[in-house]
Amino acid sequence: MARKTINDFAQMVSKGEKIVYLTAYDYLTAKMQEKAGVDMILVGDSLGMVTLGYDTTFPVTMDDMVRHCQAVRRGAPNTFIVGDMPYMSYQTSNEQAIANAGRLIKEADVDAIKLEGGGPMIAERVKAIQQAGILVMGHIGLTPQFMGQIGGYKAQGRSAAAAMKIVDQAKVVEEAGAFSILVEGVPTAVGKAITERAGIPILGIGAGSYTHGQLLIYADMVGMYDNFTPKFVKKYANVGEVLTNAFKEYVDEVRAAQFPVDAEHTYGMKEEDVKEFLIALDKK
Length: 284
Description:
- The longest helix is centred in the middle third of the chain and has 17 residues, at 160-176.
- The protein is elongated and about 85 Å long.
- Helix 5 (94-108) links the parallel strand 3 (80-84) and strand 4 (112-114).
- It has 13 helices and eight strands.
- The chain starts with 5 loop residues before the first helix and ends with a helix.
- The protein is of the alpha/beta class.
- The chain has helices spanning 6-15, 27-36, 47-50, 62-75, 94-108, 120-131, 147-150, 160-176, 188-197, 218-221, 239-255, 262-265, 271-283; strands at 19-23, 40-43, 80-84, 112-114, 136-141, 180-184, 202-205, 213-216.
């Protein structure tokens, strides 16, 4: 499978083909997603909550992002990978933004970076990064790095005025040079309006069915992350329950001396070697 490019995504949009997007944070998950045929993988700063156990995405560092992007690239060498820019890795200046985006490209071999927000400062950062030759994906709507300003993890654009603001942000981010925009946590009507007016691929996570493609946090859709489940998530499996039950069974069998079974789970020796070994032990 050849790694897709922005030209491939543009062709998919023109043909009405949906773009399939999932998060991954480690080698094994990325490997399985590439086998499944996903078009695009996001190494999101959501790894802070899903993988590192933080309550928010704020503590995630550039070093965290680089390390996890490297692991995902090793697992999915032929998949288009987007690396997330963590909190305060791009807000201070254009120079800071370019340098940190460049780390994800140079050190982790991602294909593009993603940053959150739709205001003038974010537009300036998008423009600067893309002028440095780096593909930029925007992210508007429910933006976790702005959770203090938007009132927490809740849907955005539910009033007419709020909806228009998000539509305007999409235009600003596109005009700044983003190759694509992720729209999160908005009503279907808002996702539809943005998609119909855009000249670039619009991907949705909780933005309705009209976007050019869909993203989900993999740990949500397979039942691994159970701290909370957003309304827009469909669970395709309950891997968390399967793993918990397997761990419980292992705990019970070890404590009951039922595992390991020497005839099945350990290495053997020839009978003459066992005898020679026991004789040697007796002489010790």
